[in-house]
Design a protein that fits this description.
The complex is a heterodimer of chains A (135) and B (264). In chain A, 53% of the residues lie in helices and 4% in strands. Chain A is mainly α and 135 residues long. Chain A has a domain of 81 residues. In chain A, a hairpin with a 5-residue loop joins strand 1 and strand 2. With 264 residues, chain B is an alpha+beta fold. Chain B has 2 domains: 36 residues; 212 residues, Alpha-Beta Plaits. In chain B, a hairpin with a 6-residue loop joins strand 5 and strand 6. Strand 1 of chain A pairs antiparallel with strand 1 of chain B, so a sheet runs across the interface.
């Protein structure tokens, strides 16, 4: 018995074990130190800058644009309504390619950049035109 | 000692009540709203939109002399809607196309018919039936009859490609995308969405044009072969033609009540 328990009560070994455990457990944290990708810079087109405002305020757009597009799609396809009047009274044609990409015609530097960063890949572009300006 | 325990319990009880009530107060505070609330957004149709109770079409086949008279209708439709031109007939995607009288009206066909009728290419398309069987079989309501104007609409976002509607449609008006249509669209209309592999598609009576106040593309280029109007309005152009001429519809005995009428 005394022989066996010698290892169990060896202070140095125990401390070394704890240190190794802490290092391993913290692996994800120290491994990523300084490596987290910086949030991408989102670029607005001249047209968007001139327009100043999006369809709704910026916070709403950042958080809810997918929800807005879903509502637009049902309104157009299922209810046959194509015009959206925002709370400020401005009218928009409810169209993904013809409206969103009219102002945000730089899809790669705008939608895609943020979606790549957040690992979202909308399948909309399988059907919807991603270059409505034809370039 | 005794009374202190009693006091402790009292205070603990009141404190618990206070903590429990906080969410309720928060909710009321949120509903009450601080400052002016935004008005809700409005969804509406354009004032220019063409409307009807039930859209219908009359095809005046007396004005068709040859394939040359109807080919432009097909081209116009397929161009505006990004319909692909598939190399193999069995993969064909079609919204409007030509059939012989025998194929279009098998129940009316007889061995001997006039040369003129035998030669005429009959333009055929989705009949936007008053009682559409495709709508009945669709498991996802991807295809539905629009209450407002009778158009049988496809919601491509919901189509799961089960093809029940292809089996249900007695007119062959629906096509399935076995391949990605992208590579077979000659000239893309940048204003209209395409489709993708795995969905069914068909004529939409140009509902996207009607919404902007423009008549369907095929009607526009038809030189009077096609007339488009409201089936429920007895003074409409289509009702006038139906009242003044003998018309037939495809496979009426099936009870689908097609909204495309043919003057022969």
């Amino acid at each position: 018995m005394p022989n066996n328990s010698k290892g169990m009560y060896n202070k140095n070994l125990v401390i070394a074990g704890i240190v190794i455990f802490v290092i391993l457990a913290a692996f994800p944290f120290w491994f990523n130190v300084g490596r987290s990708a910086p949030a991408p810079e989102i670029i607005l087109t001249e047209k968007a800058i001139a327009a100043e405002d999006c369809v709704r305020d910026k916070e709403y757009m950042t958080l809810e644009h997918m929800q807005l597009l879903d509502v637009w799609r049902d309104a157009v396809v299922r209810d046959g309504k194509r015009i959206y009047v925002n709370p400020k009274g401005v009218e928009f044609n409810m169209s993904l390619s013809n409206t969103c990409l009219d102002c945000h015609s730089n899809k790669e530097e705008f939608c895609d950049r943020c979606h790549d960063y957040t690992s979202v890949s909308p399948y909309c572009w399988d059907c919807h035109i991603d270059n409505p300006q034809g370039d | 000692m005794k009374s202190s325990r009693r006091n402790f319990l009292k205070i603990a009880g009141i404190a618990a009540l206070g903590v429990g009530a906080k969410p309720v107060f928060d909710t009321f505070a949120a509903v009450g709203g601080h400052g002016p609330t935004e008005p809700a957004p409005i969804f509406k149709s354009s004032e220019e939109a063409l409307t009807a109770n039930h859209w219908a079409m009359v095809v005046d086949t007396r004005k068709i002399r040859s394939e040359r008279d109807v080919a432009p209708l097909f081209r116009a439709c397929h161009q505006v809607h990004n319909v692909p031109d598939m190399p193999l007939k069995r993969h064909e995607i079609k919204w409007i196309w030509a059939e012989s009288f025998h194929h279009a009206f098998p129940d009316l066909h007889s061995e001997l018919i006039s040369d003129k009728i035998a030669r005429t290419p009959f333009p055929v398309l989705c009949n936007h039936c008053e009682n559409p069987p495709c709508v009945r079989v669709c498991p996802t309501k991807a295809t539905f009859k629009r209450e407002s104007d009778g158009i049988v609409v496809m919601d491509y976002h919901r189509c799961i490609g089960c093809r029940f509607c292809l089996a249900a449609c007695p007119y062959g008006a629906r096509s399935f995308n076995f391949f990605n249509p992208d590579d077979y669209i000659k000239e893309v209309n940048l204003k209209f969405a395409k489709r993708t592999k795995g969905v069914v598609e068909k004529c939409n009576f140009c509902e996207e044009r009607l919404a902007e106040g423009i008549i369907p593309a095929c009607v526009e280029v038809s030189n009077g072969i096609l007339t488009f109007g409201d089936l429920r309005d007895s003074r409409s152009s289509v009702r006038k033609l139906i009242a003044e001429n003998f018309t037939i519809r495809r496979k009426v005995h099936l009870g689908t009540s097609p909204a495309v009428y043919y003057i022969v």
